[in-house]
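Students often ask why inverse folding is considered easier than folding. One informal answer: many sequences map to the same fold, so there is more than one right answer. In these notes we will look at a single instance of the problem. The structure comes first.
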């Protein structure tokens, strides 16, 4: 076809940062270093790792330290918790008929319905602050709407991690003028081979490792089919949870260093008192033998002063434990965690925290609503239809502390506030506690409060 991408390309300068956040989210790459083991089961070499090697640490010792290193992915926990608050409330959609309904049941070609797809998408978007969505039509499309309905020949939505982007250029409106990203394509043996995909407002291409065009075509949409989601501003955007990745790396190292301290300093050393002037060859030989064989299953004979153990101080380990707890507290603060163990906050401080969480959830949900509209609009372009589904994402999340709300209710009752005021607080507690219940059940519970007051 002779279609050529732009000669001048904007490299993805932010790829390394997004790649690091992606590793922290998934817990892979250098957060799960590959350790080489010899024939005796002993670690002696390690690949890329986010553990920082000590200045005088040998390769073998560093490999052993990586062998027992662990990573719990605080970023995954934080992003998943945030996304679950939003996905826990139903999205209201109109116009989901015909082909749109069929699409929503399998939106990505992998059997995931639309709500499940968005839940996973939001985890990646919240962790990074940016996420991409490719709306692409299979090459074989139906000639009629009935044929498309029967064979599910309609666009698929594919999430693209921003670290996969190798080059792009933005329009003045902040959308992609063109974008290229790393991907795979099955060969003749159905094995995935690495390739580069290119899209602009009119054409697409698939290039091999050497940059040679292996397939190309024209989509004629008038816009690039890759959509951009950001928490704020233009792409690339790093979100409010991105610093958790940096703290996770520090936590990864602190846990490893603490393990090293425990391995080298936890075990007590047996000290044998040797009377002054009695050190001779026989004593030295006996001490050497004892030092080699002493253990829980060995017998030690002595005369004179009783031998004793010298235990190292716990100061270094305690310092590390305190620092680890400090890092965890910072992560919880950034992650907008609703409650922390043994949390001690004033009522006003807790109300402020919950208000901030609800505001952040509402803002993110609004951006997702706008993003879904753009995805359906692009889908309609592929299908060459005018109508698009309309969606309404939740705004009120009622994230609160139920214990605090109950304490407020008890205070109202003890101070003999009016029944109307107490009823409103009771209704608030019911709405918070049963937030995920169907509307009809929630209405019944709310009505029971009014009926109980009337009966009294």
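Output (designed amino acids):
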């Amino acid at each position: 076809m002779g279609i050529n991408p732009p000669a001048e390309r904007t490299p993805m300068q932010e790829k390394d940062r997004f790649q690091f956040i992606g590793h922290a989210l998934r817990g892979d790459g250098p957060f799960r270093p590959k350790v080489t083991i010899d024939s005796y089961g002993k670690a002696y070499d390690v690949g890329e790792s986010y553990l920082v090697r000590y200045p005088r640490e040998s390769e073998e010792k560093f490999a052993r330290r990586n062998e027992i290193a662990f990573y719990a992915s605080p970023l995954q926990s934080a992003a998943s918790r945030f996304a679950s608050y939003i996905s826990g409330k139903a999205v209201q959609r109109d116009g989901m008929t015909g082909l749109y309904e069929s699409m929503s049941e399998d939106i990505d070609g992998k059997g995931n319905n639309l709500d499940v797809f968005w839940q996973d998408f939001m985890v990646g978007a919240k962790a990074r602050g940016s996420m991409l969505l490719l709306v692409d039509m299979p090459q074989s499309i139906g000639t009629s709407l009935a044929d498309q309905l029967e064979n599910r020949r309609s666009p698929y939505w594919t999430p693209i991690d921003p670290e996969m982007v190798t080059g792009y250029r933005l329009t003045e409106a902040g959308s992609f003028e063109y974008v290229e990203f790393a991907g795979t394509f099955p060969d003749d043996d159905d094995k995935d081979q690495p390739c580069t995909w290119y899209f602009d407002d009119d054409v697409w291409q698939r290039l091999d490792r050497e940059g040679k065009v292996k397939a190309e075509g024209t989509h004629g949409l008038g816009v690039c089919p890759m959509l951009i989601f950001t928490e704020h501003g233009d792409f690339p955007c790093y979100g409010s949870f991105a610093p958790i990745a940096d703290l996770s790396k520090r936590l990864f190292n602190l846990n490893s260093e603490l393990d090293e301290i425990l391995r080298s300093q936890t075990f007590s050393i047996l000290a044998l008192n040797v009377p002054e002037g009695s050190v001779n060859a026989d004593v030295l030989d006996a001490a050497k033998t004892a030092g080699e064989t002493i253990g829980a299953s060995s017998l030690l004979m002595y005369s004179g002063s009783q031998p004793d153990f010298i235990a190292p101080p716990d100061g270094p380990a305690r310092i590390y434990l305190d620092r680890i707890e400090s890092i965890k507290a910072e992560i919880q603060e950034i992650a907008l965690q609703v409650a922390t163990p043994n949390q001690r906050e004033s009522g006003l401080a807790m109300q402020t925290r919950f208000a901030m969480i609800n505001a952040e959830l509402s803002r993110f949900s609004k951006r997702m609503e706008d993003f879904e509209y753009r995805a359906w609009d692009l889908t309609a372009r592929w299908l060459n239809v005018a109508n698009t589904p309309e969606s309404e994402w939740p705004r009120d999340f009622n994230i609160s502390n139920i214990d605090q709300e109950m304490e407020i209710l008890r205070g109202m009752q003890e101070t003999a506030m009016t029944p109307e005021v107490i009823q409103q607080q009771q209704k608030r507690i019911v709405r918070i506690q049963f937030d995920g219940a169907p509307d009809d059940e929630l209405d019944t519970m709310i009505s029971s409060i009014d009926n109980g007051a009337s009966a009294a």
